[in-house]
Amino acid sequence: MVTLIKSLWVGEVPLGQVFWWYAVVCGLLINLVTSILLLALFVNDAHITLLIGSFLLPIPYNLLVVAGVWRSANRYDGPKSHADLARIGCVVWMIALTAA
After folding, report:
1. Which domain holds residue 48?
2. CB-count burial class (<10 Å; 0-12, 13-18, 19+) for 46
C-alpha cells in the first residue's frame, strides 16, 4: 500500500491507469461512499464535527490522485494535448466530486 501511494505521488503510475482507474473509478466510489456517510450523519442529527470530518474524509485521496495525474502527465510520451486534458479533467472531476 505504501509503495502504491508513493508510486502515485511521484507519478510512476502510467497516465491512463492513474486517470481512469484511480481518479475516475476509485475517486467516484470513495466520494460516493463518503457522501452517503455524510447524508446518513446529517439525517441522524450528528454533531457538526462528525459532519465536517466526513466531508473532509476523501480530500487527502483526491489530492493524492490529482498529484499523481499531474506528475504522470509530465512523464507521458504521447501527445501533449492528452496529458493536458488529463490534468484539467482530473482537477475538474475532483472538484466536482468534493463539492457534490
Report:
1. 15-99
2. middle
